[in-house]
Amino acid sequence: MTNEINILFTGYGGNDSDLTPLFDSERVNFINFPTIEIVSTNLTSEEEEKIRTADNYDYLIFTSANGVRHFIQHYDSDLSNLSKTKVVAIGRKTASLLINNNIDVDLIPQNSSSESIAELLTENLVREKSILVPGSMLSKPDLCNSLETKGAMVDFVAIYDNIIPNNIPRDVEIYVKEGNINLFVFTSPSTFHNFISIFEIDNIQNYFSDKVIAVIGPVTKEAIEKENLIVRIIPSKYNLDALTEEIINYYKLN
Fold this sequence. Notes:
12 helices, Rossmann fold, four-stranded parallel sheet, alpha/beta, elongated, five-stranded mixed sheet, about 35% helix
């Protein structure tokens, strides 16, 4: 095959249907290697209680589908009890998972980012309201801080963690070590940092000098640019569908 593009997808959703145009392209060799593994955290009794009594909060904010999955594992009551709590989902994938588990979604920001949630939840909405945010050990405090400055009472519970996977498929290792990847897709700062750690890349700028980097949003872009690397592909809407479209346009795959 001529002009084959080797794409390494490092995120957790490498089998997502939004990526189908890339799977199906005859010009693409799509390599799915998540550089993160999602595991449950050991919650304290106080944290467990906050999750179990989530229906007592005014707002429940989910910043990822992983947060939904691990919340459901810990929430012992009938999910219909959450009907009086306003549920916020960061994007349509997270919202779909909630709805599929019979949890109604009240608010979804226009862009899939914590910043967009903070903009959506104005002071008039959250002042003196109680908010529960089940998230990741790596979650930035910006969202919670923003809500608290607006007068909200926020409880954050790190309900899952992102760790580095142990096993590296041999074919992926060969592609990476021999520098045969054309496009790297990073969906979070941790996917990028873990990639560097897994493959022990010492000279980061040299390794990526002739590579194309795509990211799903500005937080990941900022983390990568701190290493003096250039991010060439970033969608205007922060989701896999928009990112796939940008990649297709960049390589003129349609």
